[in-house]
Write a structure and sequence with these properties.
Mean pLDDT: 88
Number of helices: 7
Helix content: 40-55%
Strand order of the largest sheet: 1-6-5-2-4-3
Low-confidence stretches: 1-10
Number of strands: 6
Shape: globular
Order of helices and strands: HEHEHEHHEHEEH
Structural class: alpha/beta
Distance between the termini: 46 Å
Strand content: 15-25%
């Protein structure tokens, strides 16, 4: 019975993923997007890492589509669905893992892919939070690849804010979408535990500052 359920899921997930990806592409095409700060995509720099809070994962998935970027996805049914959508949005095959399952293997896979010259997208407080608390693996990846780590924040108006742990941001059709980049953070290959912790705290501060600035620019209330 379990095999049959798995077989059914493997058939309908790609189809559903394609439909969701199409709807997201149509939604994103209606947005009025403005980007500010040191945009690494404009410079063509590779490899590179982009770091953001989990609240912006949906908007970011649409904004950075068709770049063959690498995003770590959890080993779960939700992760299967997310992976199906990401592939249809032009992302690379995702390393699969989370803090509770397969983290070291997924981190190693992402490190190898980014080291080859790809873009790595990092949801610093994912997949389960706590919100706005950067995980150590983000800095370990920056240290292992030598790639610059660009903090970024996305705000939108009008938009929905879901009641999930991360307060997921869902820009509505024709929304104004603002993407702010911060200065890149570089982690030396020989960085020790104290240096990694300092870098993690700096990343949290930069992400919170950018998020607050982006929200304020669009006249949105500050996050609690």
């Amino acid at each position: 019975m379990a095999h049959r359920r798995s077989s059914v899921r493997s058939r309908w997930l790609p189809r559903l993923g394609g439909l969701v990806a199409l709807l997201l592409r149509v939604l994103g095409a209606s947005w009025r997007v403005r980007t500010e700060g040191p945009d690494p995509f404009a410079s063509g720099e590779r490899p590179l890492l982009g770091a953001l809070w989990h609240r912006s994962f949906l908007a970011a998935a649409v904004l950075f589509r068709d770049r063959d970027a690498v995003v770590m996805v959890s080993r779960s049914r939700d992760g299967d669905a997310i992976e199906a959508v990401l592939r249809r949005l032009g992302y690379a095959a995702s390393p699969r893992g989370s803090s509770s399952r397969g983290a070291s293997t997924a981190l190693r896979q992402q490190l190898e892919l980014v080291s080859e010259g790809r873009i790595g997208a990092l949801l610093c407080d994912g997949p389960r939070g706590p919100a706005r608390h950067a995980k150590p693996g983000v800095l370990a990846l920056a240290r292992g690849t030598g790639a610059p780590l660009y903090p970024l924040a996305i705000a939108a108006r009008p938009a929905l804010r879901l009641s999930s742990w991360d307060r997921t941001l869902v820009p509505l059709p024709f929304a104004r979408v603002l993407c702010l980049y911060g200065e890149p953070l570089r982690v030396p290959g020989d960085a020790g535990p104290s240096e990694l912790e300092d870098a993690r705290l700096r990343l949290e501060r930069d992400l919170d500052r950018l998020m607050a600035e982006a929200d304020a620019r669009l006249g949105l209330p500050p996050e609690p």
